[in-house]
Automatic annotation (TrEMBL):
Subcellular location(s) per record: Cell membrane
Organism name: Roseovarius albus
Protein family according to the UniProt entry: Belongs to the 4-toluene sulfonate uptake permease (TSUP) (TC 2.A.102) family.
Keyword set, alphabetical order: Cell membrane, Membrane, Transmembrane, Transmembrane helix, Transport
Record protein name field: Probable membrane transporter protein
Membrane topology label: Multi-pass membrane protein
Length: 251
């Protein structure tokens, strides 16, 4: 075990991983999402795709104790349940694709997904009608594939919620619950497939310390009356992901 810890501490780029996960925690606590959008593009420079997905979902589970209790009473749990059920069925498809695609391809997909999300929101794309059960199943299903493939568990559902007419407090709570459920599903699939190695688990534990701390800071800063600021903070997070995620910055 001591040797594993030493290897993790000697990992090239560890300081950047700590900085990224720390900033991501602040954003996650404030907006309800953003961890993967910030961390995955940076981690993809230093870690193989499967390890990135494992680390981001493992650390996501850590944040549950900080965010889920408050979100539970504010969320539309029935709606989140439908989304999570659909994602449960499709996560294995994303993980299967992850094993078949090379690292650079996955990183380009991360960038494209983040870019499309940002463009749709900033240009003002909105919908006004209520999404029925079939629509929720579709959104959840696509989110499951994307989450299993790239570790970006949030963009599909984030775009779905921010483009709608819901109150910001409910959007944040729904997103928190869905991301928590999807993290559990992805970790369970990775464990069953034997993808998570002990070294990956140690790295996730090391990163979980700054992540949990900054998540609490972000949550304390959240003010539901500042809806405009909330939306633009979310857009800024996605914009950072687009820039840092370009496979031009690393191998």
């Amino acid at each position: 075990m001591l040797e594993l810890i030493t290897d993790v501490l000697a990992l090239p780029g560890l300081i950047w991983l700590i900085v990224a996960i720390g900033f991501a925690g602040i954003v996650r606590g404030f907006t309800g999402f953003g961890t993967a959008l910030i961390f995955v593009p940076v981690a993809g420079i230093f870690l193989p795709p499967e390890q990135v997905v494992a680390v981001i979902t493992l650390t996501g589970i850590v944040s549950m104790s900080a965010l889920v209790p408050r979100a539970w009473g504010q969320a539309d749990r029935k709606e989140v349940g439908v989304l999570a059920f659909a994602a449960l069925l499709t996560v294995p498809v994303g993980i299967m694709l992850l094993r078949q695609l090379d690292q650079v391809t996955v990183r380009w997909m991360v960038t494209v997904i983040a870019s499309v999300t940002l463009a749709a929101l900033i240009t003002g794309w909105r919908y006004s009608r209520k999404i029925d059960a079939k629509g929720l199943l579709g959104v959840g299903g696509v989110a499951g594939v994307v989450g299993g493939l790239t570790g970006l568990t949030g963009p599909i559902v984030i775009m779905f919620y921010l483009a709608g007419q819901g109150a910001v407090k409910t959007i944040r709570a729904n997103t928190i619950l869905f991301l928590a459920a999807l993290d559990i599903v992805i970790v369970a699939n990775l464990l069953l497939s034997g993808t998570i190695e002990l070294g990956t688990l140690v790295l996730a534990i090391v990163l979980a310390v700054p992540y949990f701390t900054t998540t609490l800071i972000g949550q304390a800063a959240f003010d539901p009356s500042q809806e405009k600021f909330y939306r633009w903070a979310a857009y800024a997070v996605i914009g950072v992901a687009v820039l840092t995620g370009l496979p031009l910055w690393g191998v």
